[in-house]
Amino acid sequence: MRFSTSASSMRSSAIRELMSLASKPDIISFSGGMPNNDLLPVQEIDEIYNSLSPAVKKQALQYGPTGGYPPFLESLKGFLKEKGLPVEDNGLIVTTGSMQAISILSKIFIDPGDRVITEYPAFIGAISAFKSFQADFETISLDDDGANIQELENILNSSKPLPKFVYVTPYFHNPAGILYSKQRRQELMQALKGHDVILIEDDAYGELYFDEKDKELTVPIKATGPETVPICYTSSFSKYIGPGLRIGWLLAPNEIIEKCDLAKQSLDACTSTLSQVLAHEFLVQNRLPDYLAKLRKAYKKRSELMLEALDAVMPEGVTWTRPKGGFYIWVTLPEQLNAMDILKKTIDKGAVFVVGNTFDPLGERNNCMRISFCNTPEDKIAHGVELVAESIKSFL
Amino acid sequence: MRFSTSASSMRSSAIRELMSLASKPDIISFSGGMPNNDLLPVQEIDEIYNSLSPAVKKQALQYGPTGGYPPFLESLKGFLKEKGLPVEDNGLIVTTGSMQAISILSKIFIDPGDRVITEYPAFIGAISAFKSFQADFETISLDDDGANIQELENILNSSKPLPKFVYVTPYFHNPAGILYSKQRRQELMQALKGHDVILIEDDAYGELYFDEKDKELTVPIKATGPETVPICYTSSFSKYIGPGLRIGWLLAPNEIIEKCDLAKQSLDACTSTLSQVLAHEFLVQNRLPDYLAKLRKAYKKRSELMLEALDAVMPEGVTWTRPKGGFYIWVTLPEQLNAMDILKKTIDKGAVFVVGNTFDPLGERNNCMRISFCNTPEDKIAHGVELVAESIKSFL
């Protein structure tokens, strides 16, 4: 019996290992990247389901066009237009999570050995998608204002063939938790100008700002221009309405969307029509604003509890980001510490997080960790952070 | 602006063109490959949705494990076990339609230039999936009892490197409508014995037999053994409960499923949990038997109407299959006719079907056509067939 697989099928099983670690009963989990169960819009979805006509319910069980259920494409365009996005001059495709959007772009554009520039740290799903099509990586570092543009320019101006993509997540970064400053965004687009690369702007958390004053910084780069290189804008409802629906999308130049549509035909034919019908109604029944307001308040509270705990118990030499939205805090340990050692000790003590190494496309650096507050009950956060701090102290 | 795409992204837009042709208003469509809208289980899904507890509704909106929502994996195993499938000795993964199962297998196993053996005609989705990973094709012809085994042996025994897959759809074939005989199945497995290939057994329609006496021929090859080569068994609920849910699965040797799980992580993370919850309840509430009985009766009736019409109006020299289940009849025209000419004329007259060329991986043959009865109102079938016959006669 032979299983000689294609070269592109080699993958690390890091995600699975971490998921199994994180699922021990009673453990305080800072490892999740999903909305808190108690915040999911069960009542809203109930009301929406029961408002559907029999004809629409039939459509929900039927195939839809590969590019998306047409009424949802329309309401989604409205939602994106409100964010200032250029929906008229671009194509839009509904994907099975934004994960699929990144995966399709990889399938279309990446040949083995092609390079991709990502931030370090970077979203593990995107790393996996690029890797599964055998991309090579260059990384640029992050500070509180965004990616290091000098490092980006150095890569773009080197003598090697240009990378295919620059992949960034400017809004409440996963895992770093940061929000790009206005200036950094402008510098990014300036640096890309004249280079033959595509920018993937991944925006899964932008609606989850904690304070109204930060809203203006969540307006997508693709909405503010100038589009000095083609921008593929990916987003999803996974962090807002619920990941179980698997609703994501890609807004990109028409000729890219046409290729994505063809690729998606042979990947899964179309995204769940039922999910698209529910997402469409969420939008047209105007349920998103109130629901998002509730989420912002809840995640802000959890974030504050976590920051208070970190301020109170973390030893000197440990630093962390102070998120203005989203799900995550990124903790940097003193250079000599290894996050995997600390993870093991922390699991023994009864808490879990994700080691920074997971988010390193190069797989080299491991003195950081992602602690997420999105899915942890409020009354567990302080104690969980104490357990992490105790583990760190035991290595100092 | 550059869009230098990867070599694997080249695709024909034949499907899209045909879909747009088929969607003209008032046209009698024999082109659909989906369940009839009026047969979709809207009431059953309503009752199921309203029977869900709040806790399950939360789960339905949440991420699930990549391999599948655990309760559904269990109930699905029960369903497959009843068909005699070896669920204990194999791995099972839920996929976003069986389309995704075929696509993932292609991603894992096919390197550019690898060969795949399919029947001619063959399911266009599978052709697309193999092509999108740059497979080359060999085809084996079909008769009423299944694939031509001598042709298969000739390919397997040639001096070229072995193909990666042999792909067959033995049960109410799409598009050919045929059902493999017991003997042909045995000959198939005998021919494969000792060769280092994987058999993909695609079973999307097997439950839709028109007569109880044919049920025994729908027991999967994977259920009856001996498994002389590894068998990857793909199936879905798209033709039973509804394609809008995007629920498919793959039952295959454990080491293949492990690779599929890793690949799926970077494709769409998981299949819609909501869809899996509904499919699970469809099974555990034991709703499938009655519902399938209703479908069998309805599609049998449509098939009879279509066969009656064909018998009545088709000119001499035209032949067709007589399906014992499923959705499709495969019509073979006299050699000198071209199905595309006839399609154009038929559309002018007010009906539409799919040209046989669409189902030819080699893209060469075009004197056949698929006419489907699944999605055509009963009272339109006879007239539609008349229009097709008139078009054919005009070329004789």
Describe the model.
The structure is a homodimer of 396-residue chains. Chain A is built from 14 helices and 14 strands. Chain A is of the alpha/beta class and 396 residues long. In chain A, the strands form 3 sheets. Chain A has an 8-stranded mixed β-sheet, sandwiched between helices. Chain A is globular and about 60 Å long.
Helix-strand blueprint:
Two copies of one chain form a homodimer.
Chain A: H1 14-22, E1 28-29, H2 42-51, H3 54-61, H4 70-82, E2 91-96, H5 97-109, E3 115-120, H6 124-132, E4 136-143, E5 146-147, H7 149-156, E6 165-168, H8 182-192, E7 198-203, H9 221-224, E8 231-236, E9 247-252, H10 254-265, H11 273-284, H12 288-313, E10 319-320, E11 328-332, H13 339-349, E12 351-352, E13 354-355, E14 368-372, H14 378-393
Parallel strand pairs in A: 1-12, 3-4, 3-6, 6-7, 7-8
Antiparallel strand pairs in A: 2-9, 4-5, 8-9, 10-11, 11-14, 13-14
Helix pairs in contact in A: 3-11, 4-11, 5-6, 5-10, 7-8, 12-14, 13-14
Characteristics:
homodimer, 396 residues, alpha/beta, eight-stranded mixed beta sheet, four-stranded antiparallel beta sheet, 14 helices, 14 strands, globular
User: What letter string, H or E per element, gives the SSE order of chain A?
Assistant: HEHHHEHEHEEHEHEHEEHHHEEHEEEH
- Given helix and strand content, the structural type of chain A is alpha/beta
Largest interface: A-B, 81 and 82 residues
Q: How would you classify the quaternary structure?
A: homodimer
C-alpha geometry of chain A: globular
Cα-atom radius of gyration of chain A: 21 Å
- Strand ordering within the main sheet of chain A: 2-9-8-7-6-3-4-5
| SS elements, strand count of chain A | 14
The main sheet of chain A comes to: 8 strands, mixed
The portion of residues forming beta strands of chain A comes to: 15-25%
The overall average pLDDT of chain A, rounded, is: 94
- How much helix is in the residues of chain A? 40-55%
Span from first to last CA of chain A? 51 Å
Low-pLDDT runs of 5+ residues of chain A are 7-15
Number of helices of chain A: 14
